[in-house]
Amino acid sequence: MSNLIDILNFNEQFVENKEFEQYKTSRYPDKKMVILTCMDTRLVELLPKAMNLKNGDVKIIRNAGAIITHPFGNVMRSILVAIYKLKAKEVYVIGHHECGMTGLNSESMLEEIKNRGISEETLQTLEHSGIQLSSFLKGFDSVTDGVKNSVSIVKNHPLLPPEVPVHGLIIHPETGELEVVVDGLKDK
């Protein structure tokens, strides 16, 4: 049931027909922005269109819920790389209405994990190793709070240059309408 063969067949034609040429750009974001947003499939094309962004304009980091769970984790590192090495000058955290992380229940997720073949012994080993799975697999109660929390982690990070504004927005996944939750310019 894998899509790999179809993808590779398409890719061969894509390269052979030089369709990649229309997407050529540099590694530096033209609009000097880095965006942290959700991995929701509805946002893949909608978010850039709703923000008037084209290929090469921004660095986009996607994860479940646009959540930063650790100030020294992969997401924050990517934001810092975008700023220090790729010349981004603004950070946008963009959540969305109807997010699957809203109200995500870690207990039901753990049940699904067990149902898919992960043993109770493995889960206990992780817990005894100091990994709190109930926290690790938890979502948030409201998208607004999730965005505000991620903005706060970025904004208050000790390695973030003080002149970099950190904005928080929520996008509607059907219409693309943007709502400002945190205006990073007002905080400067």
| Overall pLDDT score | 95
Category by helix and strand content: alpha/beta
Shape: globular
Strand order of the largest sheet: 2-1-3-4-5
What is the count of DSSP helices, taking H or I runs of 4+ residues?
7
Runs in which pLDDT lies below 50 for 5 or more consecutive residues are: none
Largest sheet: 5 strands, mixed
The total count of strands amounts to 5
Give a written overview of the molecule.
By secondary structure, the chain is of the alpha/beta class. The chain has helices at residues 4-16, 43-50, 74-84, 106-115, 120-128, 133-136, 143-155; strands spanning 33-38, 58-63, 90-96, 166-171, 178-182. It has a five-stranded mixed beta sheet. It is globular and about 50 Å long. The protein starts with a helix and ends in a 6-residue tail after the last strand.
Descriptive labels:
5-stranded mixed β-sheet, 16% strand, single chain, globular, 7 helices, alpha/beta, 188 residues
In short:
The protein is an alpha/beta fold and 188 residues long. It is 36% helix and 16% strand.
Topology:
Elements: H1 4-16, E1 33-38, H2 43-50, E2 58-63, H3 74-84, E3 90-96, H4 106-115, H5 120-128, H6 133-136, H7 143-155, E4 166-171, E5 178-182
Parallel strand pairs: 1-2, 1-3, 3-4
Antiparallel strand pairs: 4-5
